[in-house]
Write a structure and sequence with these properties.
This protein is an alpha/beta fold. 42% of the residues lie in helices and 27% in strands.
Length: 194
C-alpha cells in the first residue's frame, strides 16, 4: 500500500502544480454595478464599435464581434445590428465613441430604439514571449450607459495576465490572441449577465 501511495503522490503533485500554473495565466478584473439601476428594464442594447488604443491593428473590430456574439449567446438582450450602429455614427460624424456626450448618447438611444449603449476599448493587445513560448496579453474596458440618464450603470476592466513562472516551466503558458480575447470577453460578460 505504501508503494502505491508513493507512486500516486508525485502524480497528484504534478496535477496540483499544473492547476496552479493554469490559474497563474488567469484574468484579473474590476467591476462596477450601479445598485440603483434596474437592469430588468433593459431589453435592447446597441454595441458601439470598441476603440483600439493599442498598436495591434484590427483587434478593436475583432473584440467587438466576439463580444457581440458572446452577449447574443446569453439571450439577455436584443442587440441592434452592427450596421445600424455604424450607419448612425457615420451620419453623425462621431469618430471618438468613448467621448460621446450625454446629448449624443440620448439621441443615439432614441434613434436606435435602445435602453442602453455598450462602449468598450482595448488598452493593450500584445504578444508576450519567454523562450520558445508565446502568450497574448489583453486589457479590455467595457461599460453600459443608460440612454435615459447618460450615466454608466455597469463597467468592467479585465486584464489577462502574463503566464506565471510555473506555467512557463511546465510549458502550459501559451495563449493565442484568439484565446486571450475569448477569456477576457467571457470574464467581462459574466460580470454583467449572471
Amino acid at each position: 500500500m505504501k508503494t502505491r501511495l508513493r507512486f500516486l503522490f508525485p502524480r497528484g503533485l504534478i496535477l496540483f502544480v499544473a492547476l496552479l500554473a493554469g490559474g497563474c495565466a488567469a484574468t484579473k478584473s474590476t467591476v462596477f454595478i450601479n445598485p440603483e439601476f434596474s437592469f430588468g428594464g433593459v431589453e435592447r442594447v446597441a454595441i458601439v464599435p470598441f476603440e483600439n488604443l493599442s498598436s495591434d491593428q484590427g483587434v478593436g473590430d475583432y473584440v467587438t464581434r466576439v463580444f457581440l456574439t458572446d452577449l447574443l449567446a446569453t439571450k439577455a438582450f436584443d442587440i441592434v445590428e452592427p450596421g445600424e450602429v455604424s450607419h448612425y455614427l457615420a451620419a453623425k460624424g462621431i469618430t471618438k465613441t468613448g467621448e460621446a456626450t450625454v446629448a449624443q448618447i440620448k439621441d443615439m438611444g432614441q434613434t436606435l430604439n435602445v435602453q442602453a449603449l455598450i462602449f468598450g476599448s482595448i488598452g493593450e493587445s500584445t504578444q508576450y514571449r519567454s523562450g520558445t513560448q508565446a502568450s497574448h496579453i489583453l486589457s479590455l474596458s467595457v461599460r453600459m450607459v443608460s440612454v435615459e440618464t447618460g450615466s454608466t450603470v455597469w463597467s468592467t476592466a479585465v486584464n489577462t495576465k502574463a503566464p506565471g513562472f510555473f506555467a512557463r516551466m511546465l510549458g502550459v503558458g501559451d495563449r493565442t490572441r484568439s484565446d486571450a480575447v475569448r477569456v477576457t470577453v467571457k470574464k467581462a460578460i459574466d460580470s454583467l449577465v449572471k
